Amino acid sequence: MEHVPSHVAIIMDGNGRWAKKQGKPRTYGHYKGSETIHDIAIAASDAGVKYLTCYAFSTENWIRPKEEVSYLMGLPAVFFERFLKDLMEKNIRVSLIGEMGRLPRDTQKVLQSAIDKTAGNTGMRLIFALNYGSRREIALAVKKIAEEGIPAEEITEDTIASHLMTDGIPDVDLLIRTSGEVRLSNFLLWQLAYAEMIFTDTLWPDFTKEELYNMFEKFANRHRRFGGVEK
Ligand code: FPP
């Protein structure tokens, strides 16, 4: 594949609606959604994507019904139990952005263990945004810069970027949002400054490798136009 985006970020939306359509509880939608994460992570890695960031839980998601929040907090355990082997086989390294401290102890342990076990992998980085909010991330970065006593005249865009949770991770090339909503929902506001964006009506549990690869084609075409010269 030509011009595969290096950093792909996904707002995985529509699990609840998908479940409702099947007459199932919302949590079942999240379960199916976690299978889609597996399939899409493998497909992205196979295509040569270097960074895949998935919005799994926002700082605003805590107001959901208690049972749903608790199910989502248990899902990483299920996910890694089922799929860690495949991630290892594909040399995928797991990382996290967001504030781990507010997550339940057990969830933190499961995530830390996945991070540790995959730390030596050198392939695609699969980054979960969990208890993540972009404005909060930026506010925390500014706070750190102030605490470090960096003089105002020395503060550049790079200073801010290197104090964000995505320090060391390049900007997003392609943002995908499923389920027909067209908004950013406080996701990677800084990092999306130059990203191409593709919105699809497909609900996240129905999202496939084929649709992902079609989006990569679209991305490549936009990219070529942007360059102004076609080979
Ligand atoms: C949005 O759908 C989805 C979420 C808020 C959760 C996404 C999380 C996962 C797919 C699993 C996370 C797994 C790991 C391994 C970290 P929605 O519930 O907002 O759907 P709706 O808009 O149709 O109600």
Layout of strands and helices, then pairs:
Layout lengths: L6 E5 L3 H7 L4 H22 L3 E8 L7 H24 L3 E5 L7 H13 L7 E8 L1 H14 L9 H5 L12 E4 L18 E4 L9 H19 L4
Helix pairs in contact: 1-2, 2-3, 3-4
Bound molecules: farnesyl diphosphate.
Farnesyl diphosphate (FPP) binds next to helix 1, helix 2 and helix 3.
Q: How would you describe this structure in keywords?
A:
231 residues, alpha/beta, Undecaprenyl pyrophosphate synthetase, 6-stranded parallel beta sheet, 7 helices, 6 strands, 15% strand, globular, binds farnesyl diphosphate
Report on this model:
- The chain is of the alpha/beta class.
- The chain has one domain (about 5-135, about 170-220): Undecaprenyl pyrophosphate synthetase (3-Layer(aba) Sandwich), CATH 3.40.1180.
- It is about 45% helix and about 15% strand.
- It is built from 7 helices and 6 strands.
- The chain has a 6-stranded parallel β-sheet with strand order 3-4-2-1-5-6, with helices on both faces.
- Strand 3 (about 95), helix 4 and strand 4 form a beta-alpha-beta unit.
- The two termini are about 15 Å apart.
- The mean pLDDT is about 95.
- Bound molecules: farnesyl diphosphate.
- The site of farnesyl diphosphate (FPP) has 18 residues, from helix 1, helix 2 and helix 3.
